[in-house]
Specification:
heterodimer; A: mainly beta; six-stranded mixed beta sheet; five-stranded antiparallel beta sheet; 11 strands; globular; B: 116 residues; mainly beta; seven-stranded mixed beta sheet; four-stranded antiparallel beta sheet
Chain lengths: 112, 116
């Protein structure tokens, strides 16, 4: 089966940097992705790591270590609008199709 | 980029009735779509994988006779909640990925179902 662990809540100050960690146990692994979800909305794709290392997209970066089954999402220059839930998700194969398994989400609160 | 259109965004229905939710991939062909449900402040739980032209694959614990999935074309998948009960009230979300897209999935905007 699949399981992912990430912190349930994080609070950070506007302008600061925050790191959200994710560890996983999975059978079948193609990549680790991150999604942002604001209250009442659908998840939106942020980043995807298939290989070890750091991927940077603007203020957001994501890291993967396949040997450690670990990844993190790094948010820099935090803004109030970054307050949302962040989910890590393992992209794996099952029943002949790709699928995502989500962590329980980390609620990020950005304070002034 | 890839867009998945989901309708309706909100629906309120009476207990015992059925509700159909549609998801369309607007600018790509989605041979596979995924249906999730999400309870407040919880993660997305995969309900079923919808395959074009064949039967859906349901996750353990999901009643296939209650949550009917049809994927009749490469751009349309539907989820019908039959004989809805208040405990079916939830946020239902579909997702798909263009086969040429190598990273993330695109999600529909979600459907907030309230059964009264």
């Amino acid at each position: 089966g699949q399981s992912l662990e990430q912190p349930s809540e994080v609070t950070a100050v506007e302008g600061a940097i925050v790191q959200i960690n994710c560890t996983y146990q999975t059978s079948g692994f193609y990549g680790l992705s991150w999604y942002q979800q604001h209250d009442g909305g659908a998840p939106t794709f942020l980043s995807y790591n298939a290989l070890d290392g750091l991927e940077e997209t603007g203020r957001f970066s994501s890291f993967l270590s396949r040997s450690d089954s670990y990844g993190y999402l790094l948010l820099q220059e935090l803004q109030m609008k970054d307050s949302a839930s962040y989910f890590c998700a393992v992209d794996s194969s099952g029943a002949g199709s790709y699928q995502l398994t989500f962590g329980k989400g980390t609620k990020l609160s950005v304070i002034p | 980029g890839a867009v998945v259109s989901q309708h309706p965004s909100r629906v309120i229905c009476k207990s015992g009735t059925s509700v159909k939710i549609e998801c369309r991939s607007l600018d790509f062909q989605a041979t596979t779509m995924f249906w999730y449900r999400q309870f407040p402040k919880q993660s997305l739980m995969l309900m079923a994988t919808s395959n074009e032209g064949s039967k859906a694959t349901y996750e353990q614990g999901v009643e296939k006779d209650k949550f009917l999935i049809n994927h009749a074309s490469l751009t349309l998948s539907t989820l019908t909640v039959t004989s809805a009960h208040p405990e079916d009230s939830s946020f239902y979300i579909c997702s798909a990925r263009d086969r040429w897209q190598v990273d993330g999935y695109t999600f529909g905007s979600g459907t907030r179902l309230t059964v009264v």
